Amino acid sequence: MRRPARTRRLSIAAIVSLLTFFVITAAGVRSHHTLDRWNWRGRRIILISGCVLCAYDPASVNFPIHESYSAVNAFIPELFVPPGWSIAGFSKNEIEHVALGSGEPSTELCLKIPLWFPLLLLLIAPIRWLIARPANAAAFPVITSAKQEHP
User: Fold this and answer.
1) pTM across the whole model
2) How many domains does the chain have?
3) Are 115 and 50 within 8 A, CB to CB?
4) Once rounded to an integer, what is the mean pLDDT over residues 115-142?
């Protein structure tokens, strides 16, 4: 099997992937002591303890908001409800509660995604770049070196 070549696109993808990897790693380390929460149109994203919680509640507030505070004292209901299923850090919850504005019962879907999964995906391009041969290398170095020795 022939090794792929290192092209400019692959090099750029590897660099961008590594930069994103380091940014997400820094956010994951920060998430162990600081909770970040973003709300937007019924969608809520929470970064805490090396995991991303994605929740959707159509009956929630529709204006964008960002909150950041200590993760030690944080009360996140999505973390305390037993999951419907859980495997390798991934889990799914359905939380039933009363909507604030209308007073009607509402069901919120909450997914928990550990940060190791996107970090692992972000390493694909740099590893492929390391495996690839340089673009200007000979395709068959054994044959070309043998031709140069015997004129």
Assistant:
1) 0.70
2) 1
3) yes
4) 82
